[in-house]
Design goal:
This protein is mainly alpha-helical. It contains 3 helices and no strands.
Amino acid sequence: MAGDVLVDPLTAFGVLSVTGMLVFYALEERSPWFVIAFAVACWTSALYAWLAGAWPFTFIEVVWGVVALRKFLRRLAAARP
């Protein structure tokens, strides 16, 4: 039907993944747990990129997730007495 907007599951997954990255990045100063959530969102975005055939984006998102994981571990260690 004209005017209907349908989004395929892969695109919906990509939108949710990238939206999660944006939200968790904006909130990461509030808690280390937002940093790890950002890392997970990076990895889901990497999965989306791989499924979509965009391997350079996949590689960058995996690396960005690892960087966020290291940041999370440093912040968690710094918070311990």
